[in-house]
Amino acid sequence: RKAELLFSMSSHKEFLTKVAANARPTLVNGSWRKPFYSAMRLAKIRKECLAEGVQWPLEKKRGYPDKKPKGHKHERLKQQRLKDIEKKMKTMDDQVDQFLTKKREERKQKQEKKRLLEPVPLQ
């Protein structure tokens, strides 16, 4: 049967062209027709071709060779994050000073309020 399948036509190329054309479903008058060769039959023909040393033309592409992996979000945004940190570090001294002066003022106001509310001792 192997010889029937591969050598029923005059050349391997003609046979493989016929197989490739009939291996996929076709749209005829608005309705889909099943492929002439089933997946199991295609697998058998493929196996025979590879055993004979003939290259199989219907190899499926695996994965996405042209597409670079997306990677993790933190890796993608690392450069931008470092730039932002560097920019913010330039103003950090001023921000620390503002924060400390604000806290000192709040502490003074709190102490002043506490001092005003405590009772005055009688002499």
Question: What does the model show?
Answer:
There is one protein chain. A two-stranded antiparallel sheet has the order 1-2. It contains six helices and two strands; from the N terminus they run ααββαααα. The chain has helices at residues 2-7, 12-21, 39-52, 73-76, 78-90, 92-117; strands spanning 26-28, 31-33. It has 123 residues and is mainly α.
Strand order of the largest sheet: 1-2
Mean pLDDT: 85
**What's the total number of strands?**
2
Structural class, by secondary structure, is mainly alpha
Key terms for this structure?
single chain; 123 residues; mainly alpha; two-stranded antiparallel ribbon; 6 helices; 2 strands; rod-shaped
Question: Topology, pairings included?
Answer:
Layout: H1 2-7, H2 12-21, E1 26-28, E2 31-33, H3 39-52, H4 73-76, H5 78-90, H6 92-117
Concise overview:
The chain is mostly helical. It is built from six helices and two strands; from the N terminus they run ααββαααα.
